[in-house]
Amino acid sequence: MSINPYIFHCCKRCARKRNTRYLPRDIVFQLLLHLPAQLLHDVVRHVCREWSLVICSPNFIQHHLRNSTGGVIIQQKISPRNGIYVEMRRGCLEICKFDCGVDGLVRSSCNGLVVISDESGFPNLYVTNPLTKQWTILPPFSNLTGHYWNCGLAFVESSMEYKMVRMCRDEYIVQKTRIAVLTIGVDEVWRHIDINFCHSQLSFIWFLFVTGGYVHWTSSKYVLTLNVETEIIRRFPAPQLPKMFGSFLPMGGNLSYIDESRKFSRDVWEMNSVTGEWTMLFSFDSEPLNDRFKGMFSNYMKSITPRFWLVARELLVFSLGFGQIFWIVYNVKTSEIQSFELEGGRYHSEAHVNSLVWLE
Fold first, then answer.
1. pLDDT at 322
2. Dihedral sign (CA 124, 129, 135, 140)
């Protein structure tokens, strides 16, 4: 009986049964890196024991994370478990169901792990991987109040640890603002960072963004940046522009600012998280968006909102209208537009990337 030399099997055991060749592990490793995390978890790891060992190895998980592209979680506020995950694959939008396994809204995401506040009468914070359904509950806050949306999950690469950061107020001292930090899996109670130098400004800062190992709180005049490794917070000026009318957004490892002060032309600025220096990277034209969707709203330019960079410096995600019902992915280099519409309701969204990462 002749053997077809071009038939391969997944591992030595399967090949031996059929007297055929098998794929070496290093080739399997490289091939599997190009498959979506959900397919790897739901299907591929069950093919054989050898593939399962590759997929579950910390080395593969980290390489796959670096090889993955980002997406967006969109949840209905009244029914957060009925969510979707949107990502760009091979130049086309792919939309799939999203269920994090815990009732609640996603408040932050990092490396495929998400922070969720549940909807019970005594809200808790959970860290979970929506794909693998692994989860842990975080220690409660003591004598601290504040909005759960003002919390961020960040990764410390040097120690391979994850830290939760939250801006909050002491319930006994109304005007005392604190930044609380928790090293997940290490700390049993939240620690406070000394921010006495900026108490007077914190009341004007509302928006929190995470870029790699940094957490930023932004306002129209300045940015407070926390290095989560050293737990040192610094204050940097916002971009020095004639008029601050635009949006701060994470972009890769740094914070970006999209200047929307002109009718259609948009300038994209980037802040160095270490020095606080702002650099104007490029400009793009938003007029193609206006031409495509101007009939949807009477006051279009006040209805469209930049939400996320799906691909840094290339794909920008907008929501259109109240409630985040209509979504647009705009290629700022080619002006290519893709869009989709959700059913009526109000939605909450968060940037995310599907991964196999867990805390251990």
1. 74
2. negative
Instruction: Pull the structure tokens for residue 110.
Output: 């990092």
Pairing of strands 246-251, 254-259: antiparallel
Q: Could you tell me if 303 and 294 are in contact, meaning their C-beta atoms sit under 8 angstroms apart?
A: no
Angle between helices 58-67 and 49-56 (to 10 degrees): 70
How many Å apart are CA 160 and CA 186, to the nearest integer?
12
What pLDDT sits at residue 216?
A: 95
The stretch 89-108 carries a mean pLDDT of 87
Sign, CA dihedral 10-14-18-24, equals positive
CA distance 94 to 84: 10
Contact 139, 124 (CB under 8 A): no
Helix residue ranges per DSSP H, the chain: 12-18, 25-32, 37-42, 49-56, 58-67, 199-202, 287-293
* Phi–psi pair at 139, nearest 5 degrees: -60, 145
What's CA 221's distance to the chain center, in Å? 25
Which H or E run contains 183? strand 177-183
pLDDT category of residue 20 using cuts at 50, 70 and 90: low
Residues 6+ apart with CB under 8 A from 1: none
With tokens 């950061």, the residue in question is 165
Q: For residue 128, which of 193, 73, 207, 66 has the smallest C-alpha distance?
A: 73
